Amino acid sequence: MKFQLSQLQQHLQARKLTADAEFTRISTDTRTLQPGDLFVALVGPNFDGHEFIAQAQQKGAVGALVSTEIDSDLAQILVADTRIALATLARLRRQAMSGQWLAVTGSSGKTTVKEMLGQIFAQAGSVEVTQGNLNNDIGVPLTIWNMQAEDIAYRVLELGANHPGEIAYTCRIGVPQIAILNNAQDAHLAGFGGHRGVVETKGEIVSGTAADGQVVLNLDDANFAYWQQLAGARKVWSFSVDKQAANVHSKALQLHPQHSEFVLSIDGQEADAKLPLAGRHNVANAMAAAAAASAAGLSIATIVAGLAQCEAYKGRLVRHELEHQVLIIDDTYNANPSSVRAAIDVLVQQAGTSCLILGDLRELGDASRSLHEGLGRYAANAGVDYFIGVGSRVAHAVSQYAADGGANPIAVASQDEVAAYLAHLPKQNLSCLVKGSRSSRMERVVELLLQQER
User: Fold this and answer.
1) pTM as predicted
2) How far apart are CA 171 and CA 190, in angstroms?
């Protein structure tokens, strides 16, 4: 689908168009810009895309969306705010695209649910899902714009947020027909002003769903009733790990070190299912995906077939099985207190000596110390054999782990100090979980562990 700048001038309330140009794709980053793209010059606290107009032209951009006219012969369309204009372009694109549109949010598990839906819908037709972590107020419009225009049956958007109003904003762009609210947990508390802010912000996806749409809600979450009220006249699908009152739930659940088995129940229909992912939390994710797929009209047999194809996504309980029964579990993509507890549950199910290597959890605000201490207590009570904490915040968790009888508490200030302690871990029959907030960059520790085994 091709667009011309002259066709968009009125929609964007553009102040000026220096020349016309035709384009099919949009880019905000000259590093990934392709010939024929329209370059959008975004402006932020620490960057100004207008400084890269010449580079965009050199790489083949046919035009630029700008808020300040630049001395260049590249076609430019001048608007008041390029970020708002980007959203307007994405809404126009969304209106011209067919298929069922779904959106998923939650404090944790939203990427996993998105990937599960990708596998399930692939059993029934063509599907496109958000790539990587393009789930914010810039990533969502870029995702929509760069999707295929024709013959896609299902489109799944991941919606993230670090402040109130962001999900409402991206819902106005994507207009989901089916929305999945996975959970609300203690994540990004500093940006939301506390847990209640998280609950309300995640609830924006419910209010932002099409008026005749459907909403998938977690009956196991304490905020279910609040979100259900927000749904109004929209149809609500409830899901739960094992509450039979939910539309979608599991029965006869068996949690194994590498997978789960259960009977999937959807409004009275039942089918045996196997999920090749570990952890009760991933069963919850599977119930969310099953409920959304059922809302989209898929059969229980199709859903079970899709769940069987799921695999661990990058940085989310990815297993590295090494010699001498050494297992490294890479769960480094991100962390909040709830996801750490879920990962510990998976760790202690594994064979051999257990070792938790945890980096600082960020953006927890005034509750940071108490939440970290709670994780130390949880690790001790779960029977974790070694706890290596990396950073000043997680040092409180290590101290609490020791106070509650944890066997091997180790606190280090930085990743540079980790290597010395890794050398003293058992060389065989060891299961080691590595986790931390994205900004803690704990994937470097995973690489250290893997290097030691090479």
Assistant:
1) 0.91
2) 23
**C-beta of residue 284 within 8 angstroms of C-beta of residue 277:** no
SS3 at position 301? helix
DSSP 319-364: EEEEGGGEEEEEE-S---HHHHHHHHHHHHHSSSEEEEEEEPPPS-
The alpha carbon of residue 83 and the mean position of all alpha carbons in its chain are separated, in whole angstroms, by 22
At residue 302 the predicted structure's pLDDT band, cuts being 50, 70 and 90, is very high
Q: Provide the pLDDT for residue 225.
A: 98
pLDDT at 195 over 90: no
Rg (CA), the chain: 24
| Closest of 111, 129, 223 to residue 176, by C-alpha | 129
Q: For residues 409 and 403, is the Cβ–Cβ distance under 8 A?
A: no
What is the C-alpha to C-alpha distance for residues 241 and 264, in angstroms, rounded to an integer? 10
- What per-residue confidence (pLDDT) applies to 454? 55
pLDDT (0 to 100) of residue 453: 60
Q: Are residues 438 and 333 in the same domain?
A: yes
CATH number, residue 110: 3.40.1190.10
Do 243 and 147 belong together in one domain? Answer: yes
Instruction: Count CB-CB contacts under 10 A for residue 356.
Output: 29
* Domains: count for the chain: 3
Q: What is the DSSP track for 223-286?
A: THHHHHHHHTTSEEEEE-SS-TTSSEEEEEEEE-SS-EEEEEEETTEEEEEEESS-SHHHHHHH
